[in-house]
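Hi again,

Forgot to attach this to my earlier email, sorry! This is the prediction with manganese (II) ion bound. I've pasted everything inline since the attachment limit keeps bouncing my files.
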Amino acid sequence: MAQSRVEEIRERVDGDFARIVDLLGRKVAMRSVSAEGITGEHMRRSAQFVADELRGEGVDTQVVQSTNPDGTPGAYEVVGSKIVDPAAPTVLLYAHHDVQPVPDASAWSTEPFVATEVDGRLYGRGSADDGGGIAIHSGALRALGDELKVNIKVFVEGEEEMGSPSFIPFIEAHKEQFDSDVIIVADSGNWSAEIPSLTTSLRGNTDLDVTVRALEHPVHSGQFGGPILDTNTLSSMLIASMYAEDGSLNIPGLQGGDPVGGLQRDLDEAGFRADASVVDSYRLAGSGSLASRLWTKPSISVIGFDAHPVDGSFNVIANETRFRLSIRTAPGQRPEDAAKAVTDFLTTHAPFGAEVSVSTLDTGMGWSMDPDAEATRDAMASMREAFGVDPVNKGEGGSIPFIPELQRLFPSAQVLVTGPEDPKANAHSPNESIDLRSLKNNVVTEALILDKLGK
Ligand code: BES
Ligand code: MN
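C-alpha coordinates for the complex follow:
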Protein backbone atom coordinates (compact mmCIF):
# COMPACT_ATOMS: atom_id res chain seq x y z
CA MET A 1 0.00 0.00 0.00
CA ALA A 2 1.20 3.50 -0.76
CA GLN A 3 2.66 5.41 2.13
CA SER A 4 0.41 8.09 3.61
CA ARG A 5 1.69 11.66 3.75
CA VAL A 6 2.14 11.51 7.51
CA GLU A 7 4.17 8.29 7.23
CA GLU A 8 6.29 9.79 4.49
CA ILE A 9 7.00 12.91 6.55
CA ARG A 10 7.64 10.93 9.71
CA GLU A 11 10.21 8.80 7.92
CA ARG A 12 12.07 11.92 6.81
CA VAL A 13 11.94 13.46 10.27
CA ASP A 14 13.21 10.18 11.75
CA GLY A 15 16.13 10.33 9.35
CA ASP A 16 16.82 13.97 10.21
CA PHE A 17 16.26 13.76 13.95
CA ALA A 18 19.89 13.39 15.01
CA ARG A 19 20.63 16.65 13.19
CA ILE A 20 17.65 18.38 14.86
CA VAL A 21 18.79 17.31 18.34
CA ASP A 22 22.35 18.31 17.56
CA LEU A 23 21.17 21.75 16.39
CA LEU A 24 19.27 22.14 19.64
CA GLY A 25 22.36 21.18 21.63
CA ARG A 26 24.46 23.76 19.81
CA LYS A 27 21.73 26.34 20.41
CA VAL A 28 21.80 25.64 24.18
CA ALA A 29 25.58 26.13 24.12
CA MET A 30 25.09 29.69 22.77
CA ARG A 31 24.16 30.92 26.30
CA SER A 32 21.92 33.57 24.81
CA VAL A 33 20.68 35.10 28.06
CA SER A 34 19.03 38.37 27.02
CA ALA A 35 18.93 39.58 30.64
CA GLU A 36 22.74 39.77 30.49
CA GLY A 37 22.47 42.42 27.77
CA ILE A 38 20.27 42.37 24.70
CA THR A 39 22.97 44.05 22.62
CA GLY A 40 25.80 41.80 23.83
CA GLU A 41 28.12 39.89 21.55
CA HIS A 42 26.67 36.62 22.87
CA MET A 43 23.27 37.66 21.51
CA ARG A 44 24.70 38.62 18.12
CA ARG A 45 26.43 35.23 17.91
CA SER A 46 23.23 33.43 18.84
CA ALA A 47 21.26 35.31 16.16
CA GLN A 48 23.97 34.53 13.62
CA PHE A 49 23.84 30.85 14.57
CA VAL A 50 20.08 30.72 13.97
CA ALA A 51 20.39 32.66 10.71
CA ASP A 52 23.05 30.24 9.44
CA GLU A 53 21.02 27.17 10.40
CA LEU A 54 17.88 28.42 8.67
CA ARG A 55 19.86 29.50 5.62
CA GLY A 56 20.82 25.84 5.40
CA GLU A 57 17.10 25.11 4.92
CA GLY A 58 16.88 27.51 2.00
CA VAL A 59 15.64 30.55 3.89
CA ASP A 60 17.37 33.76 2.84
CA THR A 61 18.11 35.02 6.35
CA GLN A 62 19.88 37.97 7.83
CA VAL A 63 20.60 39.30 11.30
CA VAL A 64 19.26 42.80 11.85
CA GLN A 65 19.79 44.87 14.96
CA SER A 66 16.60 46.61 16.01
CA THR A 67 16.31 50.13 17.38
CA ASN A 68 14.63 50.85 20.69
CA PRO A 69 11.82 53.40 20.91
CA ASP A 70 14.34 55.85 22.43
CA GLY A 71 16.68 55.46 19.44
CA THR A 72 19.32 53.32 21.15
CA PRO A 73 20.47 50.02 19.56
CA GLY A 74 18.22 47.06 20.38
CA ALA A 75 18.08 43.31 19.93
CA TYR A 76 19.64 41.09 17.27
CA GLU A 77 16.71 39.72 15.30
CA VAL A 78 16.76 37.05 12.62
CA VAL A 79 14.54 37.74 9.63
CA GLY A 80 14.32 35.96 6.34
CA SER A 81 12.15 34.49 3.64
CA LYS A 82 11.86 31.63 1.21
CA ILE A 83 9.49 32.59 -1.57
CA VAL A 84 8.37 29.61 -3.63
CA ASP A 85 5.39 31.09 -5.46
CA PRO A 86 4.19 34.67 -5.12
CA ALA A 87 0.61 33.47 -5.60
CA ALA A 88 0.80 30.95 -2.74
CA PRO A 89 -0.06 31.75 0.88
CA THR A 90 2.72 33.04 3.11
CA VAL A 91 3.45 31.58 6.53
CA LEU A 92 5.53 33.45 9.10
CA LEU A 93 7.44 31.15 11.44
CA TYR A 94 8.21 32.68 14.83
CA ALA A 95 10.50 31.64 17.65
CA HIS A 96 12.87 33.50 19.98
CA HIS A 97 16.56 32.81 20.39
CA ASP A 98 17.03 34.52 23.74
CA VAL A 99 16.77 32.46 26.91
CA GLN A 100 16.15 33.02 30.60
CA PRO A 101 19.08 33.47 32.99
CA VAL A 102 20.57 30.74 35.17
CA PRO A 103 20.91 32.46 38.53
CA ASP A 104 22.04 29.31 40.34
CA ALA A 105 23.67 26.53 38.33
CA SER A 106 23.94 24.41 41.49
CA ALA A 107 20.14 23.99 41.41
CA TRP A 108 20.55 22.02 38.16
CA SER A 109 21.26 18.30 37.93
CA THR A 110 23.13 18.80 34.64
CA GLU A 111 25.26 21.62 33.22
CA PRO A 112 22.68 24.28 32.22
CA PHE A 113 24.43 25.20 28.96
CA VAL A 114 25.46 21.69 27.97
CA ALA A 115 22.52 19.87 26.40
CA THR A 116 22.26 16.52 28.15
CA GLU A 117 19.87 13.70 27.32
CA VAL A 118 18.32 11.84 30.24
CA ASP A 119 15.45 9.37 29.79
CA GLY A 120 14.18 10.78 26.52
CA ARG A 121 14.40 14.42 27.54
CA LEU A 122 17.09 16.89 26.53
CA TYR A 123 18.07 19.12 29.46
CA GLY A 124 19.54 22.61 29.13
CA ARG A 125 18.59 26.27 29.38
CA GLY A 126 16.50 27.13 26.33
CA SER A 127 16.16 23.49 25.24
CA ALA A 128 12.40 24.02 25.28
CA ASP A 129 11.90 27.81 25.62
CA ASP A 130 12.52 28.52 22.85
CA GLY A 131 15.30 26.51 21.26
CA GLY A 132 12.58 23.93 20.74
CA GLY A 133 10.69 26.38 18.52
CA ILE A 134 13.78 26.93 16.37
CA ALA A 135 14.35 23.17 16.11
CA ILE A 136 10.72 22.61 15.05
CA HIS A 137 10.94 25.20 12.26
CA SER A 138 14.24 23.82 11.02
CA GLY A 139 12.98 20.24 11.06
CA ALA A 140 9.69 21.05 9.32
CA LEU A 141 11.45 22.99 6.54
CA ARG A 142 13.93 20.14 6.04
CA ALA A 143 11.14 17.55 5.93
CA LEU A 144 9.33 19.38 3.13
CA GLY A 145 12.42 20.55 1.26
CA ASP A 146 11.52 21.28 -2.35
CA GLU A 147 7.95 20.10 -1.81
CA LEU A 148 7.19 23.26 0.16
CA LYS A 149 4.08 24.87 -1.38
CA VAL A 150 3.82 27.96 0.80
CA ASN A 151 6.09 30.97 1.05
CA ILE A 152 7.99 31.16 4.31
CA LYS A 153 9.02 34.16 6.32
CA VAL A 154 10.89 33.76 9.56
CA PHE A 155 11.27 36.00 12.56
CA VAL A 156 13.42 34.72 15.40
CA GLU A 157 13.43 37.32 18.09
CA GLY A 158 16.30 38.21 20.42
CA GLU A 159 14.46 39.87 23.30
CA GLU A 160 11.22 37.99 23.95
CA GLU A 161 12.16 37.20 27.54
CA MET A 162 12.64 40.93 28.14
CA GLY A 163 9.13 41.82 26.94
CA SER A 164 10.09 42.72 23.35
CA PRO A 165 10.90 46.41 24.01
CA SER A 166 11.97 47.25 20.45
CA PHE A 167 9.39 45.15 18.67
CA ILE A 168 7.01 47.92 17.63
CA PRO A 169 9.63 50.13 15.92
CA PHE A 170 11.15 47.00 14.37
CA ILE A 171 7.94 45.75 12.88
CA GLU A 172 7.04 49.20 11.60
CA ALA A 173 10.41 49.46 9.88
CA HIS A 174 10.19 45.94 8.40
CA LYS A 175 6.52 45.48 7.63
CA GLU A 176 7.18 43.41 4.51
CA GLN A 177 9.13 40.87 6.62
CA PHE A 178 6.00 40.19 8.67
CA ASP A 179 3.20 40.48 6.15
CA SER A 180 1.72 36.97 5.99
CA ASP A 181 -1.48 34.95 5.87
CA VAL A 182 -0.68 32.60 8.73
CA ILE A 183 1.69 33.06 11.65
CA ILE A 184 2.98 30.02 13.54
CA VAL A 185 4.28 31.01 16.95
CA ALA A 186 6.22 28.02 18.27
CA ASP A 187 6.73 29.35 21.79
CA SER A 188 4.06 27.63 23.84
CA GLY A 189 3.37 23.99 24.32
CA ASN A 190 1.27 20.88 24.50
CA TRP A 191 -1.11 19.46 27.06
CA SER A 192 1.50 16.79 27.75
CA ALA A 193 4.29 15.11 25.87
CA GLU A 194 1.69 12.69 24.46
CA ILE A 195 -1.31 14.99 23.88
CA PRO A 196 -0.92 17.92 21.48
CA SER A 197 -2.62 21.30 21.90
CA LEU A 198 -3.17 24.56 20.22
CA THR A 199 -2.93 27.43 22.66
CA THR A 200 -6.32 29.13 22.86
CA SER A 201 -5.27 32.15 24.89
CA LEU A 202 -2.35 33.85 26.58
CA ARG A 203 -2.45 36.23 29.49
CA GLY A 204 -1.02 39.72 29.27
CA ASN A 205 1.77 40.91 31.50
CA THR A 206 2.18 44.26 33.23
CA ASP A 207 4.87 45.17 35.73
CA LEU A 208 4.41 47.87 38.36
CA ASP A 209 6.92 49.31 40.80
CA VAL A 210 5.42 50.34 44.12
CA THR A 211 7.03 52.50 46.78
CA VAL A 212 5.62 52.69 50.30
CA ARG A 213 7.01 55.52 52.40
CA ALA A 214 6.22 56.35 56.03
CA LEU A 215 9.20 58.27 57.44
CA GLU A 216 11.88 60.65 56.21
CA HIS A 217 14.59 58.33 57.51
CA PRO A 218 14.94 55.03 59.43
CA VAL A 219 14.50 55.25 63.24
CA HIS A 220 15.34 53.13 66.31
CA SER A 221 12.94 50.18 66.49
CA GLY A 222 12.79 50.23 70.29
CA GLN A 223 12.30 53.93 70.66
CA PHE A 224 9.62 54.21 67.96
CA GLY A 225 8.32 50.68 67.38
CA GLY A 226 4.63 50.20 68.19
CA PRO A 227 2.90 53.31 66.95
CA ILE A 228 5.16 53.30 63.94
CA LEU A 229 5.06 50.30 61.62
CA ASP A 230 8.01 49.69 59.36
CA THR A 231 7.40 50.00 55.65
CA ASN A 232 8.15 46.31 55.05
CA THR A 233 5.17 45.49 57.26
CA LEU A 234 3.05 48.23 55.71
CA SER A 235 3.94 46.91 52.25
CA SER A 236 2.98 43.40 53.29
CA MET A 237 -0.37 44.68 54.56
CA LEU A 238 -0.92 46.55 51.32
CA ILE A 239 -0.06 43.46 49.26
CA ALA A 240 -2.33 41.26 51.39
CA SER A 241 -5.22 43.69 50.97
CA MET A 242 -5.43 42.83 47.26
CA TYR A 243 -6.67 39.31 48.11
CA ALA A 244 -9.93 37.82 49.31
CA GLU A 245 -9.90 35.16 52.01
CA ASP A 246 -9.64 32.35 49.45
CA GLY A 247 -6.58 33.87 47.84
CA SER A 248 -8.30 35.24 44.75
CA LEU A 249 -7.65 38.83 43.76
CA ASN A 250 -10.20 41.36 44.90
CA ILE A 251 -9.43 44.43 42.81
CA PRO A 252 -12.27 46.32 41.13
CA GLY A 253 -11.67 46.75 37.41
CA LEU A 254 -9.19 43.89 37.11
CA GLN A 255 -10.96 41.53 34.73
CA GLY A 256 -11.13 37.75 34.76
CA GLY A 257 -13.04 35.31 32.61
CA ASP A 258 -13.68 31.72 31.68
CA PRO A 259 -11.45 29.69 29.36
CA VAL A 260 -11.67 30.94 25.79
CA GLY A 261 -13.91 28.70 23.69
CA GLY A 262 -15.10 26.82 26.80
CA LEU A 263 -13.11 24.49 28.99
CA GLN A 264 -12.28 21.30 27.08
CA ARG A 265 -10.59 19.62 30.04
CA ASP A 266 -9.64 20.99 33.43
CA LEU A 267 -6.12 20.56 34.69
CA ASP A 268 -5.56 17.68 37.03
CA GLU A 269 -4.88 19.09 40.48
CA ALA A 270 -2.47 16.37 41.61
CA GLY A 271 -0.45 16.65 38.41
CA PHE A 272 -0.44 20.42 38.64
CA ARG A 273 0.83 20.26 42.22
CA ALA A 274 3.59 17.89 41.24
CA ASP A 275 4.65 20.00 38.21
CA ALA A 276 4.75 23.11 40.38
CA SER A 277 6.60 21.22 43.14
CA VAL A 278 4.36 22.60 45.92
CA VAL A 279 4.88 21.37 49.47
CA ASP A 280 2.22 18.92 50.68
CA SER A 281 0.59 21.26 53.16
CA TYR A 282 0.05 24.12 50.67
CA ARG A 283 -3.59 24.75 49.66
CA LEU A 284 -4.16 26.15 46.15
CA ALA A 285 -5.50 29.71 46.12
CA GLY A 286 -8.50 31.04 44.24
CA SER A 287 -11.76 29.48 43.13
CA GLY A 288 -13.33 28.09 39.98
CA SER A 289 -11.64 25.70 37.58
CA LEU A 290 -7.91 25.41 37.93
CA ALA A 291 -7.67 26.21 34.22
CA SER A 292 -9.53 29.51 34.61
CA ARG A 293 -7.30 30.46 37.54
CA LEU A 294 -4.23 29.93 35.40
CA TRP A 295 -5.33 31.02 31.95
CA THR A 296 -8.10 33.58 32.07
CA LYS A 297 -8.16 35.13 35.53
CA PRO A 298 -5.54 37.64 36.61
CA SER A 299 -2.72 36.92 39.01
CA ILE A 300 -0.21 39.13 40.78
CA SER A 301 3.25 38.05 41.94
CA VAL A 302 5.72 40.08 43.97
CA ILE A 303 8.84 39.51 41.87
CA GLY A 304 11.11 41.93 43.69
CA PHE A 305 11.14 43.37 47.20
CA ASP A 306 13.85 45.70 48.46
CA ALA A 307 14.30 45.10 52.16
CA HIS A 308 17.43 44.84 54.24
CA PRO A 309 18.93 41.34 53.89
CA VAL A 310 18.50 39.24 57.02
CA ASP A 311 22.24 38.89 57.51
CA GLY A 312 23.58 42.13 58.89
CA SER A 313 20.17 43.56 59.70
CA PHE A 314 19.92 45.80 62.76
CA ASN A 315 17.30 47.41 64.97
CA VAL A 316 15.76 50.09 62.80
CA ILE A 317 12.32 50.71 61.38
CA ALA A 318 12.49 50.81 57.60
CA ASN A 319 11.25 54.18 56.36
CA GLU A 320 10.67 53.28 52.73
CA THR A 321 10.15 50.03 50.80
CA ARG A 322 10.02 49.38 47.12
CA PHE A 323 8.66 46.26 45.47
CA ARG A 324 7.80 45.09 41.97
CA LEU A 325 4.55 43.44 40.97
CA SER A 326 4.12 41.27 37.90
CA ILE A 327 0.46 41.21 36.92
CA ARG A 328 -0.83 38.53 34.57
CA THR A 329 -3.94 39.95 32.99
CA ALA A 330 -6.96 38.26 31.45
CA PRO A 331 -6.48 37.61 27.70
CA GLY A 332 -8.90 40.35 26.64
CA GLN A 333 -8.10 43.12 29.09
CA ARG A 334 -6.06 46.10 27.90
CA PRO A 335 -2.95 46.15 30.09
CA GLU A 336 -3.23 49.91 30.61
CA ASP A 337 -6.67 49.36 32.14
CA ALA A 338 -5.37 46.59 34.37
CA ALA A 339 -2.43 48.75 35.46
CA LYS A 340 -4.83 51.57 36.28
CA ALA A 341 -7.12 49.29 38.30
CA VAL A 342 -4.23 48.00 40.40
CA THR A 343 -2.65 51.44 40.77
CA ASP A 344 -5.97 52.95 41.91
CA PHE A 345 -6.42 50.12 44.38
CA LEU A 346 -2.94 50.43 45.87
CA THR A 347 -3.01 54.19 46.20
CA THR A 348 -6.42 54.14 47.90
CA HIS A 349 -5.61 51.30 50.32
CA ALA A 350 -2.45 52.62 51.87
CA PRO A 351 -2.34 51.16 55.39
CA PHE A 352 -2.18 53.80 58.14
CA GLY A 353 -2.01 56.57 55.59
CA ALA A 354 1.48 55.69 54.36
CA GLU A 355 2.50 57.30 51.08
CA VAL A 356 2.11 54.90 48.18
CA SER A 357 3.40 55.70 44.73
CA VAL A 358 3.17 53.42 41.72
CA SER A 359 4.89 53.50 38.36
CA THR A 360 4.12 51.30 35.39
CA LEU A 361 7.03 49.55 33.67
CA ASP A 362 6.22 47.13 30.85
CA THR A 363 2.77 46.40 29.59
CA GLY A 364 1.92 43.57 27.21
CA MET A 365 -1.50 42.53 26.06
CA GLY A 366 -2.88 38.99 26.17
CA TRP A 367 -4.37 37.14 23.21
CA SER A 368 -7.17 34.75 22.20
CA MET A 369 -7.31 32.34 19.28
CA ASP A 370 -9.91 32.40 16.51
CA PRO A 371 -11.37 28.87 16.73
CA ASP A 372 -12.98 29.10 13.29
CA ALA A 373 -9.91 30.05 11.27
CA GLU A 374 -9.00 27.62 8.51
CA ALA A 375 -5.44 27.41 9.78
CA THR A 376 -6.79 26.38 13.19
CA ARG A 377 -8.63 23.45 11.62
CA ASP A 378 -5.59 22.44 9.56
CA ALA A 379 -3.43 22.55 12.67
CA MET A 380 -5.85 20.41 14.69
CA ALA A 381 -5.96 17.80 11.92
CA SER A 382 -2.16 17.83 11.64
CA MET A 383 -1.76 17.30 15.38
CA ARG A 384 -4.16 14.38 15.32
CA GLU A 385 -2.21 12.74 12.47
CA ALA A 386 1.22 13.36 13.97
CA PHE A 387 0.50 12.43 17.60
CA GLY A 388 -2.13 9.80 16.87
CA VAL A 389 -4.55 11.26 19.43
CA ASP A 390 -7.04 14.11 19.46
CA PRO A 391 -5.58 17.45 20.53
CA VAL A 392 -6.78 18.95 23.80
CA ASN A 393 -6.56 22.69 23.45
CA LYS A 394 -5.52 24.79 26.38
CA GLY A 395 -4.94 28.35 27.44
CA GLU A 396 -1.65 29.52 28.86
CA GLY A 397 -0.90 31.65 31.85
CA GLY A 398 2.29 32.99 30.28
CA SER A 399 2.55 35.88 27.84
CA ILE A 400 3.89 36.45 24.35
CA PRO A 401 3.27 40.19 24.06
CA PHE A 402 4.36 40.56 20.47
CA ILE A 403 1.41 38.47 19.20
CA PRO A 404 -1.29 41.07 19.83
CA GLU A 405 0.98 43.75 18.35
CA LEU A 406 1.39 41.71 15.20
CA GLN A 407 -2.31 40.93 15.11
CA ARG A 408 -3.07 44.65 15.38
CA LEU A 409 -0.87 45.44 12.35
CA PHE A 410 -2.02 42.43 10.33
CA PRO A 411 -5.60 41.88 11.44
CA SER A 412 -6.38 39.27 8.80
CA ALA A 413 -3.41 37.04 9.64
CA GLN A 414 -4.40 33.74 11.28
CA VAL A 415 -2.24 33.05 14.29
CA LEU A 416 -1.43 29.53 15.51
CA VAL A 417 0.26 29.30 18.87
CA THR A 418 2.03 25.96 19.19
CA GLY A 419 5.31 24.94 20.72
CA PRO A 420 7.65 22.46 22.30
CA GLU A 421 6.80 22.78 25.97
CA ASP A 422 4.95 20.35 28.16
CA PRO A 423 4.15 20.62 31.87
CA LYS A 424 7.48 19.00 32.76
CA ALA A 425 9.57 21.44 30.70
CA ASN A 426 10.49 23.70 33.66
CA ALA A 427 10.74 26.78 31.47
CA HIS A 428 12.40 29.65 33.40
CA SER A 429 13.33 27.20 36.19
CA PRO A 430 16.27 24.95 36.94
CA ASN A 431 16.42 21.70 34.94
CA GLU A 432 14.60 22.99 31.87
CA SER A 433 14.07 20.21 29.34
CA ILE A 434 12.27 19.13 26.20
CA ASP A 435 10.67 15.76 25.56
CA LEU A 436 12.35 14.41 22.43
CA ARG A 437 9.50 12.18 21.26
CA SER A 438 7.17 15.10 21.55
CA LEU A 439 9.67 17.31 19.69
CA LYS A 440 9.64 14.82 16.82
CA ASN A 441 5.84 14.83 16.72
CA ASN A 442 5.88 18.63 16.79
CA VAL A 443 8.18 18.68 13.76
CA VAL A 444 5.89 16.26 11.91
CA THR A 445 2.89 18.40 12.90
CA GLU A 446 4.40 21.61 11.60
CA ALA A 447 5.43 19.99 8.31
CA LEU A 448 1.86 18.71 7.90
CA ILE A 449 0.42 22.16 8.68
CA LEU A 450 2.63 23.77 6.03
CA ASP A 451 1.62 21.02 3.63
CA LYS A 452 -2.10 21.57 4.21
CA LEU A 453 -1.80 25.35 4.02
CA GLY A 454 -0.22 24.93 0.58
CA LYS A 455 -3.26 23.11 -0.80
N1 BES B 1 7.34 30.81 26.17
C1 BES B 1 7.00 31.77 27.17
C2 BES B 1 5.51 32.02 27.29
C3 BES B 1 4.80 30.78 27.73
C4 BES B 1 5.01 30.32 29.02
C5 BES B 1 3.97 30.10 26.88
C6 BES B 1 4.42 29.16 29.43
C7 BES B 1 3.39 28.93 27.29
C8 BES B 1 3.62 28.46 28.57
C9 BES B 1 7.70 33.07 26.87
O1 BES B 1 9.02 32.89 26.46
C10 BES B 1 7.76 33.93 28.12
O2 BES B 1 8.23 33.48 29.12
N2 BES B 1 7.27 35.14 28.01
C11 BES B 1 7.40 36.09 29.07
C12 BES B 1 6.94 37.42 28.54
C13 BES B 1 7.14 38.57 29.49
C14 BES B 1 8.61 38.96 29.58
C15 BES B 1 6.35 39.75 29.04
C16 BES B 1 6.53 35.67 30.25
O3 BES B 1 5.43 35.10 30.08
O4 BES B 1 6.98 35.90 31.39
MN1 MN C 1 9.35 31.43 25.12
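The mean pLDDT is 96. The chain has 13 helices and 18 strands.

That should be everything now.

G.
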